[in-house]
Write a structure and sequence with these properties.
Length: about 170
């Protein structure tokens, strides 16, 4: 079952509220900490999610969300590259969550707009729950600042096989 148009906007507002609250939480918790990486990440995510709901860059909602995910990934990637954000497990959760969201958004956009499909099928349910689970996962990672699912460890193992060191795997 996919999330319909009645419940969807409320879930969207809840996700935006979650990113805003986690930003405020991290701002208070890390105000005296010299490493502000988690605060910067929380701020970027809050701004991205709030502006994507209110400032449309293109006509399609799905395409708009896709563009915002790419812009957010680019911004985070540049901050990591220029060492404004230090490597941490939270980076893995944010980057993986945004990439999964972008893939799911692309799939649903192609299904609805390119293929002109209006019949609900399993992809719609996967999209509905997948995007929201990724968003909650990112909010949780920002709130607790720990590798709670072992995603960072998994990425380190996969990248060590390919010859990368631990710090590069966290980026």
């Amino acid at each position: 079952m996919f999330i319909n148009d009645v419940v969807g906007p409320y879930i969207g507002v809840f996700i935006e509220w979650g990113f805003l609250m986690v930003f405020l939480l991290n701002w208070v918790l890390y105000i005296n900490n010299p490493n502000k990486s988690i605060v910067i990440l929380s701020f970027i995510m809050a701004v991205s999610y709030i502006t994507s709901e209110h400032l449309y860059l293109v006509y399609s909602t799905y395409l708009n969300w896709f563009i915002y995910d790419l812009l957010t990934l680019t911004c985070i990637g540049l901050l990591i590259r220029y060492q404004k954000i230090s490597p941490s497990p939270v980076n893995c959760y944010i980057v993986c969550g945004l990439i999964l969201n972008a893939i799911l958004i692309t799939a649903i956009y192609c299904d609805i707009y390119v293929r002109s499909n209006s019949e609900p099928w399993w992809l719609w349910s996967v999209y509905s729950f997948g995007v929201n689970i990724c968003d909650v996962m990112m909010i949780t990672a920002l709130a607790i600042n720990k590798d709670f699912l072992g995603l960072s460890k998994l990425l380190i193992k996969v990248r060590i096989i390919k010859g990368l060191n631990k710090h590069q795997a966290l980026i």
